[in-house]
Amino acid sequence: MGSTPGEKSQIPLLTPYKMGNFQLSHRIALAPLTRERFFKNVPQPQPHVVLYYSQRASKGGFMLSEATRVSDTAQGYPNTPGIWTKEHVEAWKPIVDAVHAKGAVFFCQIWHAGRVSNTGFQPNGQAPISSTDKELTPQILSNGVDVARFSPPRCLTTEEIPQVVNDFRIAARNAMEAGFDGIELHGAHGYLIDQFLKDGVNDRTDQYGGSIENRCRFAREIVEAVVAEVGADRVGIRLSPFANYMESGDSDPNTLGLYLAETLSRYGILYCHMVEPRMKTADEKFECPHSLVPMRRAFKGTFIVAGGYDREDGNKAVEEDRADLVAFGRHFLANPDLPKRFEVNAPLNKYDRSTFYLHDPVVGYTDYPFLDETA
Ligand code: FNR
Fold this sequence. Notes:
The protein has helices at 47-55, 86-101, 161-177, 192-197, 212-215, 217-230, 253-265, 293-298, 311-319, 330-334, 338-343, 371-374, and strands spanning 17-19, 22-24, 28-30, 62-64, 68-69, 105-111, 129-130, 139-140, 147-148, 154-155, 182-187, 235-239, 271-275, 302-306, 325-328. The chain is of the alpha/beta class. The protein is globular, with a radius of gyration of 19 Å. The mean pLDDT is 94. Ligand FNR binds at residues 31-34, 66-67, 109, 186, 188-189, 238, 275, 279, 282, 306-309, 328-331, 356.
C-alpha cells in the first residue's frame, strides 16, 4: 500500500465497515490482551485500566477486552478481571464508559482458563476443571525466565457441564449490564472451550468427546446459551484451530476449523475471529501452507483475522477479501494510536515483551508514546 511515511492515505484497513448493527469507521481491531493489571481481583475502580483502554479507543473502532473470567474457577493468571458478580459489573462500567466516550465499539472477551491454572487460583485450593484429567507440563513464560506450573486438573462430569455453560450465559448478561456492546467467547489458545474442541486434549467418552460433533458440543451449547441471553447480533467467538499453545493441538485442524465455521454460522452470530495458522504461539510466526480462507468462505457473518499482522499484510487481507477486520495485538499494545499511525504510515513504537505482564499500573501499559509525543 504505497504511501510514503507521513503521507495520508485511504488504505483498505481504513475503510468503513458495517458489522451487524455497528457502523465501524475502520478495520483495525484491538485484539484481546491479558495484561494482569486488574488489582484486588477487580471489585473496585481501576483508573489505570480506564486510561489504558481509552488511549486505544478511536471513533468507530472495534475493541476487545482482555480475557475476563466467567466464574471463580476460571482463573489462570494473577490480576485478571472477572464478570460474574455485581461488583465486577460496577468495576467495568467506568472503563466501558471511557471507551464509548471516544466513540468505539467494545466487546468483552469472556473466558474460562480450564486446566491452564493451578490450585492457588482456585476456590478452597481445589483442582482446576477441564475436559480431561491430563496435566499440562510446566511452561516458560514470555520473559524467558519464569516458569508457569499447572496443577493436575479434574475432568468435569457430564452432569457438571450445564453449570459451566450457565456461567458463560450469566457472564454475557453481566457484560451487557456493564455497558459492553457485545461479548466474544474465548474459544482459542488451549483454554477451557478449546480443551473440549481439540482431540489432542479431549479424551472424554461421553457425548462431549470423541467425534468432532461431540467435541464441539460444549462450544455449541455455550453459543446457544449466550445467543439466547444477549442476542446473536452481540456474540462473536475467537478460535485457533491450528494453534498448539498450551498443548492444545488437533490432528485435523482444517476439518475442525471448517466444521466450526459452518456450524456456528448457523446460529447467526455476529462474527468469527480466527487466529492465523502461522501463529504457533502468540510469539512465533512461521511460513505455513494452511489458510483461513475456507473458514472465511464458510462463515456467513463478519470474519476477523489475527496473528502476526502489520500494516501491509492487514491491507492485503482486507483488499483480497480474506477478512473484514484485522485484530492487532502487540502493535496495538505498543501503539495506542495505531489507526492514526497506519493512516499517515508513521513508524511504530516497538513492543517490549519483558513488560507485557508486569503488574505495574503504568510501565509497559499506559506509557507507550502517542505519535505527537514522539514527533
Ligand atoms: C495475547 N493474546 C490473547 N488472546 C486472547 O484471545 N485473549 C487474551 O486475553 C490474550 N492475551 C494476550 C496477551 C498478550 C500480552 C499477548 C502478546 C497476546 C493473543 C493476542 O490476542 C493475539 O492473537 C496475538 O498477540 C497475535 O497477534 P499479534 O500480536 O501478532 O497482532
